Protein 1
Amino acid sequence: MTTPAKYLKIIFPFFNTKRTQEIFRINPTVIPTREEAKDIIIYVYDYNATTLNESSLTTIEQCFSYKDNNNVSWINIDGIRKAEVEAVCNHYGIHYLLIEDILSIGQRPKMDEMDHILFCILNMLYFNETTMTVETEQISIVLGKKFVLSFQEDDKKDVFNPIRDKLRIAGTRLRQSNADYLCYSMIDLIVDNYYTVLEKIGEKIELLEEEIIRFGNTRSLARINSLRKELIVLKRNMAPVRDMVNGFLRSDNELLEERTIKYFKDVYDHIVQANDLVENYRDMIMTLQDLYMNKVNLKLNEVMKVMTIVTCLMAPATVIGGVFGMNFEIIPLTHQKAGFYIALALMIVIPILMIFIFKRRGWFNTGRSL
């Protein structure tokens, strides 16, 4: 049996109730179940100012040797499995509540301090050109003394390649700094990538505006609703990041060096500006919706004007035909040969005079220049 939603998908290709359900299906009182990854990929970057040891590990136990080795260690784990996450977290002294946050899904971006550990969780954002949707990937970052642990869900994409490139170059600020600067660099890249997604959304809004002005059909309205949903996704994932970064700024934890706090202020400015941009795009979407409705009303007014003019032009012929169609003997010209031609001439001449009068009054100006 075909549901109404399926009918709408046939009529409007951009109608997608499934996307709406994905966006709003969030209930903090229900613990969602995560499907464990089939494989996990572990990369370790163990470095100091002069040396770098970059390696790919096969078992989680191989990570244990990097603790307290006097180097800064970045352990990146792609793929979330409960046993491996608990093993590495227990070895590095991470509280059980933080482990639960790492294993959970749909978490609101936040920052926590617990047992000499700084922890933050947020989402990396990507724009899918095929489905025209904003995709999210949750990442958990644990900052400890001389180490950073990062837990990602997808091993096929992230935004950290610039960090990897800088780590491979001796003498960079990243190589000469402590683990807190690495943590800052990761958050900064995630926030900077938000602008890439915003640029894609901005391009779609500009194209949509031009489409509405030129055509303004029901497909345009579907695209307006689609972009509005994606802005909801952006707002939900980006707005809490400001409070998360502010948590680093207000923290007096010894893991954060004073010189690194300045860089977090820069990230804070970027996320505030990104949130303002989302609000601007939201206002533009509302303006496009008003523009669409105004154009629909304008088309309706044009149709009604044409129909009204046609009705007015047909009114004299209707009146004349009705009068001469009465069954009364006293009607003038009824029994004369010229009566028919006189009535027909009146039916033609009067509408022509009406057209001339309407044109002089400017009633035929339908505003097509819009």
Note: The chain has a mean pLDDT of 85.
Protein 2
Amino acid sequence: MEMDVADHFQVVGKRAASLMDENWRLVAILRENKMFFPDTDTFIEVGDRLVVVGQPDSFKALCTHLECGIPHFPLGYGPDLLLALLPGSNSEELIKETMHLAQNTKAKSLTILCSKEEGEIQEALETWTQTTDIKVATVEGNVEDSLEKMGSQENYGVMVVHPFEASFFVSLAKPTLISLAHSISCPLLVARQSYPYERILVPFNATNKAELALGVAVDLAHQFGAEVAVAVVEEPEFIRGVEEEEWTESVSKRVRELAHIHKYDFEVIIKKGNPVKEIVALAKDFNLMVLGSTTREKGLFSPHVGEHMAQDVPCSVLIVAN
């Protein structure tokens, strides 16, 4: 069995001896892309990938021991939500979707960031203040200028924004939503009012960030009672550089392994063609897409696939970049 250590696991900071049992044994740790074999005095750190050998029926007991089955999103990033009301956004609808997230997870409070010109939103908040601690933070000038600074604070578990694009010349330099997601310390939710989150889509290519996104999707599914579908898109061989069948089988195998690790039955959807077009078409049948982003950069003349997915899908998108 393999599992990544989250910051809420009770074994964080403890010695590897705590994972030596008659039914299972920690045999290796992958840390910062280097694998080593721990001794009993090795301390376990957040982000470690643990390789555990055990009896076939020991996963549930081990998971309970690690507390890996306890939903921790967004608490794993921070206990509070941050909603940024950008120019042109529908304040009332954004607040409704953000509260849907807050009330179905264990988020403790909500901060609404807006300009002084848009600070009169009390009517939209009155129906929610009884159930959630809400505060309004106003800024001088453009709200966009405060997003990176506010989103980097450790107490926020999710930043919520409405879909927005940079100007044409700025967008040539960097992908707008993906760049913001990489510059803050929590996931970014691009809200399109497609709640309730009953069906969740995860584009998957077996990268570390895709696996992280899948873990977040499963966590949310447990809290919302939702279904999760994993989408694998085969690109032409001349683009990927390896045979489609070989790559697809490798990725599908990893999905099966993760289904076993998470003890969750995913719907697996395999498509062929342009990843953006295929994912956008699939997303019409889903309420939320959880997208793992590996890089914030793009080539001078090449599109950023993740940015196009985030901008073009009709449902809300949760971008996981950290």
Note: The chain is about 30% helix and 25% strand.
Protein 3
Amino acid sequence: MQGKKLTAGEYIGELLTWLAKKAPAAEVILALATQRPDSKTIPSGLRAVLGSRFALRVMDWRDSNIILGEQMNTRGFDSSRLPASHKGVGILRPDGETEAVAETIAMTVRTYFMPNDDWQEMCQRGRALREAAGTVTGHAAGQDTAPVFDHIVAERAIGPGNNADSEPRMELPEPLASVVDYLGDDLDSDCRDFVPTTELIEALDVEPTALGRDMSDLGCKPDRKRMPGEDGRTRQIRGYHLVDIRIAIETYLANGGKRGTNT
């Protein structure tokens, strides 16, 4: 982007805009869907190159205009006015090359709607057919496809115990070593998958900025996760996924004790 700094969302928006312009020439059609239509989710540059647009019921006429186009509500097309009971009903603004009547700006249409009970029955039938054909794999077959923590690597990281004949362990750098020591068995268990940054700061008595910088330098970047707070309300909590900590350990040891980054 010629040296211009972009956020992740802006960069993705630039890529999607490029795809919307170029991909149809290669017979690739871009289909986008969002539950939160706003100017940041769907930037104006991207909206301008989208063809057909379809808006289900939204909460506000502004949201409807973001999907269908500016001032479409003043022309009688406002998906916020659709009754909540009309499941699957939306306003379609077709592409100019469709077979719809040329004078038609937009139209109210009804999509196929499948109740949850019918959907579950279809899924059960499909699974029965796949089981009979022996094609059920992965999570559907009960297999754990999550990254597996290498116990040999873990032993090298946190020590082999009281085995005097074992090789000397490779020490982890700080603050990763303290994080591993604090988490203990939680690091290799299914009962926990996320640790808040505030918890680590309090437990390790470290400076927040230094912790974030050093962990990122070791290839373990913080993320956000929705978790219940002490008042019972769900909030976005900043912290670390335990799988990322495990990968940082393995990467450090695999590199022979050299720091590496995780992208």
Note: Residues 151-254 form one domain.
Protein 4
Amino acid sequence: MTTNSPPTRRKRTRQVPFVGFLTYYIVLLLVATAAVAYLPAARAFFLAPLNLAGAPVDAGFLTGGEMPPPAPAIGAASVILERSLTTVFIALGAVLLAVPVAWVYMFTRRLRYDRSLVHAIIILPMVVAMVVMVIKNSLALAFALAGIVAAVRWRTTVKDPKDAVYIFLMMGLGLAAGVQALDIAFVASIAFNTLILLLWKFNVGALKSLGAPAELLFIGDRKLLTAQAPEARERLREVAGEPSVGLSTDGILSVHTKDPAMARGVVEVTLQNAIAKDWRFLDPIEHPAGMTTLRILVSIRKKVSPLDMLDELEDHWPDPIDAAEYVPFRTTKKGSG
């Protein structure tokens, strides 16, 4: 039995710092607005007409029917300077719009995020933008790039389908930046991040139940659950009956993991976070293929529900934990109930 420290105020793990999140985008918007207002050349970086086919834009339409006079000839140095500034602005804009996406990814995944994917999220839009700038007006270069990409074999496996969504978004941001439409990239970035944070805040799809909500709650891989059937839940309560003597319990938490030591530490951190008054680990069960089930009798604090406990566990979720399930099991200190 583990005795934890006196009760402390429980952290609200689902709070999202929307103020800081929106402040970042507001600052970006103000900087971009100032650049467009005081640097006429910057207008093309943010609000360039979408002309993906490479055809010339109808200048008469843009000027109200009157064709502008031909542009004066400029020197090579001016061309190089303009192209360099354009490249810098586009690369910087792509990175600045990717940074909050990387932050949202790390914030919502907590201990489970992939560091290499974080780097890819930040770098990929800039790379895509640079490629688009090179090939957007050349069909031959576009076909050449397609051949090069086809020759490269990608071995990376995406574990979570949502990770692939991040990659697609980064490619979209890069494409928008490459065609000098950073305004579209800005809206896409803030819309995507807002939606992800809202889904995470309200825990959409993370917590599931089988049958009546009081019978079984679980998170993770459903195939690993051992108490899906009513008979299995009853057997679990019978096995826990004798070890529960002397402990007032509310339920049994089963954690399925390939790393029992790490999983035990995560469970203890979760329960210590003002979730449980007391708890007791039962003997673990070892399964084939290296899987182990940790079983914990839990006495939950007042004003805390099993949903809060699983929600807290999901926030601290490490990769070695594959699933967790909770079965109600009421007992008193005098014996099983």
Note: The first strand starts at residue 208 and ends at 210.
